[in-house]
Structures are given as C-alpha cells and as structure tokens.
Design goal:
single chain; about 400 residues; alpha/beta; seven-stranded mixed sheet; six-stranded mixed sheet; 10 helices; 18 strands; about 20% strand
Amino acid sequence: MEVTLLGTGAPVGVPRPGCSCAACAVALGVDARAATALLVDGALLLDLTPGAAFAAARVGRSLGGVRQVLLSHPHDGPAVEVPAGLPQPGRVPDGRELALLTGHRVRAVPMDSPGTGYAVTGPDGQRLLYLPPGAAPAGLDETTGTYDMVVADVVGRPDALARLRMAGAVGPTTDVIAVHLDHDVSPGRELRRRLAASGARAVPDGTTLIVGVYEDVPDVPRRTLVLGGARSGKSVEAERRLEAFPDVLYVATGGTRNGDSEWAARVNAHRERRPGSWRTAETCDLVPLLKEDGSPLLIDCLSLWLTDAMDSVNAWDDDEWAGGGERALRARVEELTAAVRETRRTVVTVSNEVGSGIVPATPSGRRYRDELGRLNTVFATECEHVLLVVAGQALTLKG
C-alpha cells in the first residue's frame, strides 16, 4: 500500500497566514507545510484540502483515479471546492466499515474529540491508521491489532500515541508519521528531536511512503539524563520525552516537606503537568526500581537523591565525612550507577547542572556541589542520551 502525503501541516498550514512568530518565520522550503491530506494507492483521498490537485501534480500524482474522498475533521471557513472528477467528500459513521472496489477496506475509528479516524487495510493486508488533528482514539483494546503505519498529530496529542502503545496498536516496527504540524515547535532540527524522542518522524509534503516497509523508525534511547539550572525547563523537557508512552512511573525524590507551602506549590505544578495515566512514587530508593522490569521511569531528580544520600552518611560533618562518610557515599553512588547500567527499563532522569555559577560560601555547600558534579558525570556515562536545557532550549551533549 502506497501513501502520498500531499500535505503534512495543520488545517491552516504552516507558516500560518499573517503569523509573525519565530516558528513561522523559519518554516520555509521543505519546512513549509500545507494542510494534511493523504492519497492512498491513488484511489482513496483522506481529507480534501485547498490545492490538493496541484499538490498531487507537483509530485507526479493524479487524483483522476480517486474513488472515495473521506473527511476526518470539521473544516472551518469556506467550503473547499471539489476538483472536477472527484467524488463528493463524506465521512464514515464511527465503527462502520467501507469496502472499496479497489480492495481497500476503511473502518471509522471513534475519537475523543470531534473528528473521525480511519483504519485502512490494503488489498495485501497492510494496515494504516490515520487520525484527525487534536484527537486520540476512544475505546481501544487489545483486539485492535498492530498497525504497520500510524499517521497522527504526535505533537498536539502525544497521549494518542501512548494509548495506541498501551493497546498494542503501535509496536516496535510501526512507522509513526507526525502530521497536522503547526507552529508550536520550531521546524527542522528541534521538531526532529522532539519526534524522535516519541519514536516518530516527520516527512516533507509530497513524500510517498510504502506501508509495511520497515525503515527510518527512530530508536528511542533507553537511558536519558536531562541537565539544567534552576527554572531552565529541564523537568518539562524530561516529561515531554515520555508523554507518548503509557503507564509511566514518575519517581519524585523530594518528598512532601510538610509545612513548606512554597515546596507544595512546586509539587502541585509538576503534578498538574503530568498525564493522568502516570503513576507516582515518592522515594529515594531508586536501585530496586531500576532492577525491576516494568514501564518507563521518570526520576526527578538526582540532586534531591544526593541530598538524601549525603544526609544518610552525615556528610555535612567534616569528621564524619573523613571517618567513613565519603566512602559510604561513594558506595551508594556506585550502586546506583551499576543499577542504571544494568536496567532494562526506559529511564529519563533529571538533575541540576552545577559549577557554572557562584562558588558556595560554606564548606558543606562546596562539598555538595562537587559531589553532584561527580554524580552527574558518572550517571551521564551510563546514558545513551544526555541533554542540557538552557532557557527552555535543549542542547544535545550525547547521543
């Protein structure tokens, strides 16, 4: 089954008409995107957009063989003119299946917001799932089966991908293509980086893909360390890396700190950002979690884990530190890094980058800074991917 993406952008395209934002300003050339529309085997058109016939002609395709036009979402603004020779667009009722004379079968998949998803099975059995913008499937279960290709709003609704993974509809060999792309993420390298973290990719308008061909599926790093200073956006970046995956266990190492209202406000802000399907564990006992098999872990953060570890060996007292506290802390760090090295789970860990600012005024402050720098270094060695977040911008240091 052959799919040509006549457009891959949001319903209004990108750059947006009249928009002067930074993303739109650089959305030029291959990064400019018309509204999303898919041409399947020259016979089925999913979403009719302005200029679809010209878009097809530019890449050597014709709409003359289209036998069915299906719409996936409500179209705002004036009605799109139907090119001569094309059938009138329609929608398939949720749960119903449409059989084409070409041998394609199209089943309408219910969504959790206005719109219809389409599961297309080709004459040779390949399976494609196309989702409308801003929508995720509703009512998926294990009977859905695995799709060869999923074309969806990965940036706007990463939880849709998480639901599909939970139901087994997206597997290790599923080619996930991001469409309905808007100006929320800067095009080019940043978009590619974001999508790769979700196991997805974007292609330019006019690209033709073969459903069922295993190629270019991004390899999601199993271990990632996200570094950054205070309020740099490091936690947001770490959470974003796992929001397309189901059943994530969020490991909070900071505790509750009863009576500290400012700390409680920070904790609540983190909870509000996290997907409702994520679970939370408040603990500094990371080694058992890393040794277990299970769902992805998000550990936030190493700096608070180190505070707890240094408290446990009374590292703030010079005599205790010299009399065995330093050796005990080294052993704790070695145990943690060994567990990270051996873990089979997907792990994203947050830590504070230190040493670039003011030198702490106290010996204990300098000791903590030095130990966190050492911990970050050995932890990063065990990770396939290391990021440094500065002013909300993620810089790749490794991987």
